[in-house]
């Protein structure tokens, strides 16, 4: 099994496991093909079985011919993209189809189509950071030249895409803030349900839902964990809701075609899910990776260092919002912030402490909030990379007693021992080592920027083919305000006393960061009310486990 990056950038991307069970669509597809039943023979006519038959092709149409009858046109067997996504025969075969369907050529065809539509592009902050680093490497700045910033680059990309026919270009940070608010609400709902002993309620630990590679893997390999995955939509899909319900209609009366630019090929899979389509209208019509956006910009002779009119103008809506936490969205920090605020409100004059514990590598780090008396108030983790994800799955199975169908007979909840072995309340899960800044669709370093081969121990953590120093540069470029960076650096071991994250938590509870969060929350609440997002459950989704295939055709000899 392999996540999407293996399809296009195999030497530079992360592999889900070392198993080589990729099934190419149309080559070794195990889904049974159901064709319409042939019409019965006319009355009195006996149809005898053929001992010999021939298949002929005439102008693209297939015909069967035999000695007993004239040629019969054959029905075309069709396997749709939804069939691929609903099949457990493989994890990635549908992605080959998706990469062809969601591409630069597709976007250009839609732009050239005669229909009157509003074109909206949403660009992820991780994509902007990757492009900033790549362009800065190709264009070393002099001492007199200002460095390229995300804000300037976003304005210049906007101008270039508007020349191609786009009407609105923005980043996804405001959509992400809406997703984080919904994430916090969902966590409070789950925690209250656990405290009240509500049966059949969504469960804790709550697992992040923004990574489509992780969701695809969970649905097909560990459906027993689906009740623990947050129902909150990812920033990509929330940006689709905003584009279709707010940004597009506010500009002009026309159907909206929405393009999302993401750091990951698996986002193409996410956009194609049936859950993100209503009345035949998708929230996201096409997903381009960071590298594909770069290729599209090259066709316009794009110069990232050429200023454009209006660069310093105030944006029409919130953009480039710097959420505290991690470069993968700050999901864990948002939950930490919620628990911190509630505990401090209930215990005036006191504050909990925060401890960090690295599990094998900084890509798997525990965060524990403790009361002054040493009791565990909250336990969470950041878990990046599939190798760590496998360990996380086993740990959650032990803590909850959840087991996959094939292991249900052995499923049982284990007895917990010491306080340090408290169960998780929340985990920020991402499939790529280093998180979203290291997505398979990000810009790759040029040959002259690649560091020497990494030590063997780094390979063991799932970083094969990835230049960690380049990823660190993208991580650094992501943080416009480094004071909000609460996660440990990818290349440095975190402080066991969590001085950095604890400082950010204090800042989020009071001071300038607190005021900034309150201001953005007010804007988000206004949009939620205007679009009735909460009442219509527009920020939530569902998941569907995929039963293992028992078809004998799935076996390869």
TrEMBL record:
GO terms for molecular function: 4 iron, 4 sulfur cluster binding; metal ion binding. Keywords: 4Fe-4S, Iron, Iron-sulfur, Metal-binding. Pfam families: Fe_hyd_lg_C. The keyword Iron applies. Residues 139-440 form the Iron hydrogenase large subunit C-terminal domain. InterPro entries: Cytosolic_Fe-S_CAF, Fe_hydrogenase, Fe_hydrogenase_lsu_C. Gene3D superfamilies: 3.40.50.1780, Fe-only Hydrogenase (Larger Subunit), Chain L, domain 3 (3.40.950.10). The keyword Iron-sulfur applies. Component of the cytosolic Fe/S protein assembly machinery. Required for maturation of extramitochondrial Fe/S proteins. May play a role in the transfer of pre-assembled Fe/S clusters to target apoproteins. Belongs to the NARF family. This is Cytosolic Fe-S cluster assembly factor NAR1. It comes from Malassezia obtusa.
